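Figure 6 in text form: structure in, sequence out.
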């Protein structure tokens, strides 16, 4: 459950961040200061998902695994964003690059003592109880 929660939160955070970083490219006539402010507002929402994603994920993934997972999610979200929102062409060399990144996922999970594989998650570590503040 923690792995799934972490992955969903990472996906949501990356959608926000992709819009913060690249969404303004459709509005090049807008003053730069305006798109910076809007991007910062969007990015602040991103942090509300990214920080819990990393905290929750740290119970089942190593930091390196979290980072590689985050990069795969980032590139997946960006690929969809660039095609659907920015109307850019997806090229064959992008697919090759993505395959290399999948290789990085395999490498970072290979032989890890924290997890047997990317699919089998050790759920023996649970989140600490939340205080009633």
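Output sequence:
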């Amino acid at each position: 459950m923690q792995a799934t929660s972490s992955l969903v939160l990472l996906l949501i955070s990356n959608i926000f961040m992709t819009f913060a970083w690249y969404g303004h490219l459709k509005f090049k006539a807008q003053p730069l200061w305006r798109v910076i402010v809007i991007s910062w507002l969007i990015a602040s929402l991103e942090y509300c998902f990214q920080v819990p994603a990393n905290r929750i994920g740290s119970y089942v993934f190593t930091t390196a695994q979290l980072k590689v997972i985050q990069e795969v999610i980032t590139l997946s979200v960006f690929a969809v964003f660039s095609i659907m929102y920015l109307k850019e062409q997806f090229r064959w060399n992008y697919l090759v690059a993505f395959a290399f990144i999948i290789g990085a996922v395999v490498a970072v999970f290979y032989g890890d003592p924290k997890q047997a594989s990317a699919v089998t998650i050790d759920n023996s570590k649970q989140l600490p109880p939340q205080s009633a503040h």
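Caption detail: Residues 32-57 form the longest helix (26 residues).
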